[in-house]
Specification:
mainly alpha; flat; disordered N terminus
């Protein structure tokens, strides 16, 4: 068909942008989930681990579905493109790995529930800060711009902590 881009080709820059956006969104989502779920004092580290994992997979599946449908409209490709779209969106789910690992250690008794939660939230904030630094450096930002980008990125994680404290 004239005017259509091949469904099998996704420009490397677009693929990188999709992976990066998914990873950052996933990190914000995972951090906010840990903060929110930890407000239920009866929830164990295992409960929080389970619900963060399930919720991340549900959001990943929703993103896969939405992006797959959007690809059908713009490039076609049919069902054969579903696996490719799932792989492109996987960084969103992967972003929860540090939090899930720390919650798993809390569930196993290595850390208390509260320590596991605090470490999972801290890992999220540190990851968001690191994303800000990496992105700014790749954009050849100066030191002030890099600092500003890191602070803004960390701000999303800190906002979750602030909301947790406010609600608590």
């Amino acid at each position: 068909m004239a005017g259509r881009v091949s469904a099998r080709y996704v420009a490397p820059v677009e693929r990188s942008r999709s992976h990066l956006a998914g990873a950052i969104y996933g990190q914000i989502l995972a951090t906010s989930l840990v903060a929110t779920l930890s407000e239920d004092e009866s929830a164990t580290a295992g409960d929080i681990f389970f619900w963060v994992g399930v919720t991340m997979l549900v959001f990943w599946a929703a993103h896969v579905y939405a992006n797959w449908l959007a690809r059908q409209v713009t490039t076609g490709g049919g069902l054969s493109e579903l696996g490719s779209v799932a792989a492109e969106q996987w960084p969103m789910a992967q972003a929860a790995a540090p939090a899930l690992g720390l919650l798993l250690l809390g569930w196993a008794g290595v850390y208390s529930r509260d320590t596991a939660v605090d470490l999972a939230i801290a890992a999220g904030i540190i990851s968001l800060t690191a994303w800000g630094v990496v992105i700014a450096r790749r954009a050849d930002a100066n030191q002030l711009e890099t600092l500003a980008t890191a602070v803004i990125s960390a701000g999303f994680g800190l906002l979750m902590v602030g909301l947790k404290i406010l609600v608590h």
